[in-house]
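Researcher: Sequence recovery benchmark, item below. Answer with residues only.
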């Protein structure tokens, strides 16, 4: 779907640029390199105008599709955890090699970590 739209936009931009160059440029009196340079510059400018909305719409579709996929995966994992709870309680891993105290300074309203070893 997106490749067809991209090809259509590219061909349409090419045709629009040729029409602009025919109407606005004096290609009979100009050097061919000048005409080619102007065509390339106008072509990419017009191409950006037509490709940008296509890009934005495809990104929005991609984000919404990924959101629903992730949502359904999390729902399935949550339901599985509810139906089949773990057999042993899960204990947090505590590293006793470094002890950290968190000091709270009320005047500065900042937390500070102090390593006690």
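Model:
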């Amino acid at each position: 779907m997106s490749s067809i739209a991209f090809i259509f936009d590219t061909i349409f931009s090419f045709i629009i640029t040729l029409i602009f160059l025919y109407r606005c440029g004096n290609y009979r009196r100009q050097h061919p390199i000048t005409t080619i340079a102007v065509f390339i510059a106008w072509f990419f400018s017009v191409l950006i105008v037509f490709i940008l909305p296509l890009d934005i719409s495809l990104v929005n579709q991609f984000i919404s599709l990924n959101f629903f996929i992730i949502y359904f995966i999390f729902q399935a994992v949550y339901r599985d955890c509810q139906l089949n709870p773990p057999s042993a309680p899960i204990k947090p891993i505590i590293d006793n090699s470094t002890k950290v105290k968190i000091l709270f300074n009320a005047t500065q309203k900042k937390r500070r970590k102090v390593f006690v070893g």
